[in-house]
Amino acid sequence: MAEARFLFAHGAGAGAQSKWMRGWAARLGALGAVTPFDYPYMAAGRRAPDRLPKLIAAHRDALAALRSAGDGPIVLIGKSLGSRVGCHLALEEPVAAVVCLGYPLRGIGKTAKLRDEVLLALETPILFVQGTRDRLCPLDDLAAVRAQMRAPNALHVVETGDHSLLTTKAHLKATAATQEDVDRATLAAIRVFVGRHAGVRG
Q1: Where are the beta strands (DSSP E) in 63-188?
Q2: What are the structural domains, with CATH classification, of the chain?
């Protein structure tokens, strides 16, 4: 099987050149070729994301460019907003798998709508990487959604992780670990999942 290729989409507030994105692009490089990209609003320097149809169209264009550049299974991976848009694109375009780094299942506030429609419609294998402190994705809510999903799905939990998968100092001290150790464990979970659905290095 040809090596997996990762199309990496950013979150709402920081683009492909942010420290967080560059760090994860480097880690994912151990598994396959990584192609980060910016949505049009980010490339134009605007703060507010474009509406969903425009985001999906831009993601589709990035996918088409990656397909034209070579062969091999493609994994859509994204942070928050980028993961949600990737799920929508996977409804329309065949890809090997989707990896969500902090899926935004809910907006801010107790009355925020559950964004589960795309997940329930999805058939592409999907991995959720979620922190236990992520207010945008309560794990109880995610468990209820996963129980209804048709797509093969898996969950990697980052203990005390926030929406950016950053753990608390207290947790790191209690476990004698570093954030780098936590990130390595996350990368290992991604390796196992992608290994079931696409080629990986090593």
Answers
A1: 74-79, 97-101, 126-131, 153-158
A2: 5-197 (3.40.50.1820)
